[in-house]
Automatic annotation (TrEMBL):
Residues 1-287 form the RmlD-like substrate binding domain. NCBIfam families: rmlD. GO terms for biological process: dTDP-rhamnose biosynthetic process. Gene3D superfamilies: NAD(P)-binding Rossmann-like Domain (3.40.50.720), UDP-galactose 4-epimerase, domain 1 (3.90.25.10). This is dTDP-4-dehydrorhamnose reductase. GO terms for molecular function: dTDP-4-dehydrorhamnose reductase activity. Pfam families: RmlD_sub_bind. The lineage of its organism: Bacteria, Pseudomonadati, Balneolota, Balneolia, Balneolales. It comes from the Bacteria.
């Protein structure tokens, strides 16, 4: 079976390529970076899919600059909403399974929700994004859901892996440059690790599942907790000061709480969920130089 990978150059896309290099299966992965196939180019996308006749299309392509999305609204919408809607239509027309990724940032993220939903938002919790990136991702999800696509939507949060830039690699860089860092301690959630997201997705595909699932690690922490744990684990001598969100102003608002509930995915055979610090320790080991 041909499996098309869109957005192959991003952090999740590259993890998928590693997975397929290692994997024992009879499928052919056809990876496309943004330069090889721009998903906003409607006719090119359709021609390519019609020609390849894939069994599965994994969409890792996205506009992921949360602050940038507030200003580059049209582009963020074209990539995260319009192009995803067309993938949904093509999936319906050509019969491939569409795997799509979305975000914890679709949820309202109210501070009070932390007490009300200590295990996180469930898949069917009403969306109400606090920023434009979240809105575009919600629109993309909805377009897939309402299309006739056989689909899997995995919502993930605080994605970290060995490839590309993420909070862990940013902290490691800043920790080597500065003596003191300020990190927000009033935004709660949990990291998703790219290797685990790929593993979960594969299990869902193998099980023939469809619909929306949450894939993240176990636990509820703040970005400050995550930063502290990175420096402790790596024995890096840097002072991390916990600060409220107001002390670290960003163009886009961030949710105060965006924990994803993983009960649903845990009911699928093989979809175990690891503690966040276990995933972090593995990632830091992989990132060692
Ligand atoms: N990063 C995170 O913290 C989180 C990510 N997610 C979601 O997970 C998915 C993967 O994210 P992640 O791997 O981190 O994202 P990255 O930003 O690392 O990768 C996204 C990739 O999409 C490509 N891309 C952008 N626009 C287009 C386009 N028009 N056509 C084709 N490719 C395009 C980018 O290429 P180029 O660099 O050349 O523009 C890049 O390689 C996304 O759906 C994202 O919304 C969800 C929660 C958290
Ligand atoms: C670098 C830095 C960030 N922060 C804060 C800013 C922000 O609130 C939080 C995380 O920073 P980031 O820039 O990594 O956050 P952000 O870009 O909002 O990360 C998000 O990306 C998108 C794509 C998603 O879908 C989300 O799940 C989430 O991972 O930490 C500090 O407090 N101190 C710092 O030194």
């Amino acid at each position: 079976m041909n499996i098309v990978l869109l957005g192959a150059g991003g952090q999740l896309g590259r993890e998928w390529q590693v997975f397929f290099k290692k994997g024992e299966h009879n499928h052919t992965l056809l990876p496309y970076t943004s330069a090889q196939l721009d998903i906003t180019h409607e006719s090119e996308l359709a021609d390519e899919m019609r020609q390849l006749q894939p069994g599965v299309v994994i969409n890792c392509a996205a506009y992921t600059d949360v602050d940038g999305a507030e200003e580059q609204r049209d582009l963020a919408w074209e990539v995260n909403a319009d192009a995803v809607a067309r993938l949904g239509e093509l999936s319906g027309e050509l019969g491939f399974t569409l795997v799509h990724y979305s975000t914890d940032y679709v949820f309202p993220g109210e501070e009070e929700d932390r007490e009300q939903f200590p295990d996180g938002y469930a898949e069917d919790h009403p969306a109400d994004p606090v920023n434009y990136y979240g809105q575009t991702k919600w629109e993309g999800e909805q377009a897939v859901r309402t299309s006739s696509a056989h689909h899997l939507i995995l919502r993930i949060s605080w994605l970290c892996g060995v490839f590309g830039s993420n909070f862990v690699t940013t902290m490691l860089r800043l920790g080597s440059q500065r003596e003191v860092l300020q990190v927000v301690d009033d935004q709660w959630g949990s990291p998703s690790f790219t290797a685990e997201v790929v593993r979960h997705t594969w299990m869902l595909l193998k099980a023939g599942e469809a619909g929306t699932f949450h894939s993240t690690s176990r636990g509820l922490i703040t970005w400050y907790d995550l930063a502290q744990a990175i420096f402790e684990e790596k024995d890096i001598d840097v002072t991390v000061k916990p600060v409220p969100s107001e002390a670290f102003p960003t163009v886009a608002e961030r949710p105060r709480f965006s924990k994803l509930n993983t009960q649903k995915i845990e009911s699928i055979p093989g979809c175990t969920v690891e503690e966040w610090d276990v995933g972090l320790a593995r990632l830091l080991y992989q990132l060692r130089t």
